[in-house]
Amino acid sequence: MSKVPLTAAGAEALREELTDLKSNQRPRVIQAIAEAREHGDLKENAEYHAAREQQSFIEGRIKDIEGKLSNAQVIDVTQMNADGKVIFGATVELTDLDDDKSVTYKIVGEDEADIKQGLISYSSPLARAIIGKSEGDDVEFEAPGGMREYEIGSVTYI
Q1: Which of 46, 63, 131, 157 could form a disulfide with 77 if both were Cys (CB 3.0 to 4.6 A apart)?
Q2: In this predicted structure, what is the pLDDT of residue 88?
Q3: pLDDT tens across 24-67, in order?
């Protein structure tokens, strides 16, 4: 399996979630299963079935995170010399050339992407269009809503 890029912050967030799942949520659900078993007949015990379902979700998420971390290539953008170019992990301010609105995005791994927080995947059409470009460059790309054109403002590595 090939390595999947992940920012240092994204890898840390996954490690924290994994620690929480293993040390807090897993023991809590095991206790809930034990308590539900004490109530008797398991066939009609809704508490037991809900706890088992939650346990299944937690175990699946633990395996998912462990797999992601084992295949991750953690990239710390603060340690790189990108010479002002847009790279994985960079935070980029863009100005839409159609309406002069500014937006700021950080280019991250697919598992970290969250457009509401300004995090876009490196495989998104916008990220693919701006990677390798520099401050002041104009980029044009095909978005789901049609052609878009942006000017790259500032490029920072935080």
Answers
A1: 157
A2: 94
A3: 999 999 999 998 888 777 777 888 889 999 999 999 999 999 99
Residue 132: strand, helix, or coil: coil
Class of domain 4-75: mainly alpha
d(CA 83, CA 85): 6
Please tell me the total number of residues recorded for the chain in this structure.
158
Q: Is 3 exposed, middle or buried (0-12, 13-18, 19+ CB in 10 A)?
A: exposed
Q: Report, at the CATH architecture level, how domain 77-156 is classified.
A: Roll (3.10)
Listed in sequence order, the residues at least 6 apart from 106 whose beta carbon sits closer than 8 Å to its beta carbon are: 7, 89, 90, 91, 92, 118, 119, 120
For residues 19 and 39, give the distance between their C-alpha atoms in angstroms, rounded to a whole number.
Answer: 30
Count of CA atoms in the C-beta half-sphere (13 A) of 27: 5
**Residue 102 in tokens:** 């500014």
